[in-house]
Amino acid sequence: MTEANEVELITVLDKWEIPYAYSAGETISKFLVELRDNARIMATKCPKCQQILLPPRSFCATCFVSLKDQWVEIEPVGELITYSVCTEVITGAPEPPYVVAFVTLGGSSTPMAQFLKGVDLSNIDKVTKELKAGMAVRAVFKDRAERKASILDFHIELLK
Q: Domain segments of the chain: what residues?
């Protein structure tokens, strides 16, 4: 029961689908074009602190240094930092279950999220026991005709 001056706060469950287009900007556009056209993963490297930022950034948030023209090619191998097995339907995501992995590739300083494929998800409890931080991973690109200048032009698989 509320007092005379109090308002009961209501939570409304709803779903918004708002299509929109935006400029990816110079840095991310270059990153996406390299994925599409050359199947290359490019990052930016801070000349001051030497951090390798992937996805690339236009400036270093640590040093506040511009990273324009500070590009480095990243080896498409790295390690699993953490992951999440997703079991809920999310618009635009694969049919569940699927794994979102946070990985560092090619010595990058910052983990990036990407879909982990090639894992048997028929027994999720088994998967959560087998996947461990530090496991070796690699980026696997789609065929050229399928790449669209999107972060989804590649996925991650475990190195065996």
A: 25-158
